[in-house]
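Researcher: I'm preparing a figure for a lab meeting and need a structural model of a single chain. I don't have an experimental structure, so a prediction will have to do for now. The sequence is pasted below. Please return the structure as tokens so I can convert it later.
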Amino acid sequence: MSGIGNRVPFHPDEVLTSFLSRLSMSNFSFSAREFCSLLGMDFQKIVAGDRSEVAHLLTMAGIDPDLAADRVVSTDRLLHTINGETLNRASLVRSRLRYCPCCLEDDIRLGQERREARPYVRMQWLLSFVRSCPVHGIMLQEGVSGDGIYHDYAKLIEAEQAQPRYRNPSIKGRHTQFERYVTDRLWGRRNADRTWIDGLPLYVAGRLCEWVGATIMFGKRFIAKDLSPAQWSEAAQTGFDVVSKGRSSFVDFLKSLHDTFWEKRSHVGGRVLYGRLYERLAHETDDAGFDEIRMIMTETAIAHLPMGPGDEMFGPVTTRKLHSIQSVSKEMSVHPKTLRKLLQGAGWITADMANLTAERILFDASDLEAFVESTRDAIGWSEARTYMNASRAAWNTLSHEGFIPPAISSAEGSEGISPFYHRADLDHFLERLRAGAKADHAEASGWVSILDAAKKANCRYGEIIELLLDGKLENASAYSEKAGLEAIVVDLAEVREKTKLEDHGGLSLVDAGKSMGMQSLVLEKLIDRGYIAAEVAINPVNRCPQRIVRPREIDRFESEYVSLFNYAKRLGIHFKEAKKNLEAGGVAPALTKEVVAATFYRWADIRAAAFKFAALNISFAFA
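Model: Understood. Here is the structure written out token by token.
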């Protein structure tokens, strides 16, 4: 037979087996299978999408086989391929009829061929994800499977039209963006903005949208069989709103399900975290098409929860990114209460963590493991002081001024814990001190301990430590028979010299009085009355504040005033004779004994009386 007599149009959106069934019906054949047998074709091969057999059918029907390439359903074991898109059995409904009764009535009304051969099955009706008709805005109806007439859609439609439900009013249904998306993909139309979802097999993308939406709308433990088609339609759209935004949006959805973890004290696994979504992928299907979803769920759980070796998430977990206090305590054999106290003292536990249980306080796994490891040989502040054989004052300096870094610091404002130190760090510090104490010890009275040297030289303890560490003390030694800091002795004289502060450049009141030839009492009164300027400076030796007088201030005062005693000394006469001569020349005291405890004259007044002194043949002196 070179061709088929009664031909029917192959509609642009028609399923290939629907076209074959209508051809059979148009040619009055009992069934599509029988029709193929009469034409020498293999019905089952056409159903399976055998390219050669499909081409044979279309050629006999007068249709270019290339025009129907995008409507051939190819089957490979459990998966089907349409137009390059992959679908599994559950997502491609071929064993029973799904239809829009209004569309079928339109076909009958508008068709020209034999009436029974007019209604046809649309490609999108095969997709389980499509539940509504975009043309009529109603939910698709589902017919019963016809015994022995699978894929023979004209016969199935004929049988369905005889059912009472076919005439019942249809349920209205919104055709969703999700349904348009899966239909577009079926026809090779993809949105470039949805690269991640487009990279998933169509059946995976569709099912994921349904599961995500059902979880959001009906909870983690939703019961699939209890949801109506309309509810599934809304759930799929809700899930599509999440999944279509990309991988990161799906990850955010997964993280939102972690509330269960924070609400419980016990450890949680995939079933508790992700509910039916996890159960489906872990126990109800081993389909490799979902492996990427399993991987993302595993990575998200590991990245944000204390999951690691010993846990299960689609199989044994082999890596860990986060530890809780509880998990690291179990893994590294440390008591969780002790560890919590250490972490709190070190400032790791912030205020927002304070009320969380040990199972819910999380840290980077490697950081927390390193912290725990650092506590293995660490000793407390008091024990470290004993280990160093140091006085409380000495150890305060070493620990507070950063000479020895703590293994575990005590955070500012923390209570109940002091810093911890590694013995290795303490030993290293002592070795450095001994390296700086390289002289042979001399049994002399000037060699003292570091602490005694600091007291007697009026310097800080830390200054001597710095000199030793820098190797700047020539006379420092270490007793081999003594331990810790007590083994180090230094030369007090050298310490005094090398810790002495820079000279302030002034004279103490005692030294200034000697320089000016007056008693300290007189100098103090001159200062108090404002005749001599004094200032406070730090003594470079004892580091105490002291009043000083600058040399230039002494020069200024002595150029303006002279005491009666110093004036007489210049002339080599008794002060009483000097006073008598000054009175004879008419020179009166500028400062009296009653005011400053000594008598002072102005040089200017003495110079002014020079002619009178000469006339009276009285000796005098100038500044």
